[in-house]
Specification:
single chain; about 100 residues; alpha/beta; 3-stranded parallel beta sheet; about 45% helix; about 15% strand; flat
Length: about 100
């Protein structure tokens, strides 16, 4: 069951906006706080932007290494490496290629 609140209601009622309207003729930058936010939150927009010939750059702020702090089998470095692979694979599936991905964390 999904919680219902004012934000979700506004999102449900919002009009559709195509990527061309959002980006104009320029490139598209997707800013993702964590690995997988880019594909889960903007996957359709990324796919459409590539499909319509836009240059897409994805900036991922953190490496995801702190997502399972108490895990003994997934230490931070292992998580970061896995989440990077997953993000790169997801983008390759969405776009048919790899994109310019900038990792800040």
């Amino acid at each position: 069951m999904t919680p219902d609140g004012p934000l979700l209601k506004r999102a449900r009622d919002a009009a559709f906006v195509d990527i061309e309207t959002l980006s104009g003729p320029g490139g598209v930058v997707v800013l993702a706080p964590h690995p997988d936010d880019e594909s889960l939150g903007c996957g359709a927009a990324i796919h459409r932007a590539i499909e319509t010939g836009h240059l897409v750059t994805i900036v991922i702020v953190t490496d995801g290494s702190k997502s399972h702090r108490a895990s003994k089998s997934w230490p931070p470095q292992r998580i970061a490496e896995q989440r990077r692979r997953e993000a790169e694979n997801a983008i390759a599936i969405l776009t048919g290629s790899s994109l310019n991905m900038i990792w800040l964390g």
